[in-house]
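Recall that a protein's primary structure is simply its ordered list of amino acids. Everything else, from secondary elements to tertiary packing, is in principle encoded there. The following example makes that idea concrete.
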Amino acid sequence: MIDVSDEVRAEIGDDEADRLVQGDSAPHRYDCTSCRAPGDITVDPTATVLFVGEETAVLAFAHSRCIPSQVVPVAEEQLQGAMAGVATGAPAFEQPYPTVPPPAPAPDTAQPAVLGVTCGLVLCQQGRWAGQPRAAVVIEPTGPVGRPGMLVGEDAFLELLGDHGFAMVTDVDVPPATLPGWSVLMAMGQLHAILQPVPGGSPAAWWRAHSPLQVTDAWRSAARQHSEVLVLAAPAGSIGRQPREDLLRLALDQAARAGVLTGAVMPLAGT
């Protein structure tokens, strides 16, 4: 019952398009992006509509009787507003997809670096989180991240995060404080972005997934149960890609002892 046009398929890729056609990655119910009336992919012929901005694209759904599946160019500001609407629970487009996956720079940097993100459960032994596995997002750049004007290879990642309110974590058993205005955005059970506050405006994506990240049922359950996510970050080479959560915890403990781990607790936005 879902139609994906050739131009939409070209933007989101064959794998995602096939999942949509099969109904695996589409919501059963939606608000038509044209008439705003409810729709149901199990009974209503449904068209996919991809709104494309300069850097971002958002996938929406519509009754096929209203509009055909198509790519619609729109202003980037409109898409960012739609993302903010998802974060606050307001009616907005249903599922975001970037058009071209560019490197994700840390804020205020002159040296772009891809931010590697790992999701896992972390057990804290002290404070209000004591004894309960909590959903964590661990961030590590692929290379040094510098301020504008710094020499290539110089790393100011921890300083940049400190400027934004992240606190040094010397003991993983003690969770850091909540960072005001920041949040972790989930939509349709997938991880989409980490949002930061913008003075006088809607929250903006500090980090955005190139495509929505799948998370485990246990991670998703912990995030939803507590409505909070522990965000930890360390400079390039501090954590590495760990295949198991016990090894990830060991790497986090080592980074904390070395004084290169920073973090914050953020509320969960979305579902």
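Residues 50 and 134 are 35 Å apart (CA to CA). The longest helix spans residues 76-88.
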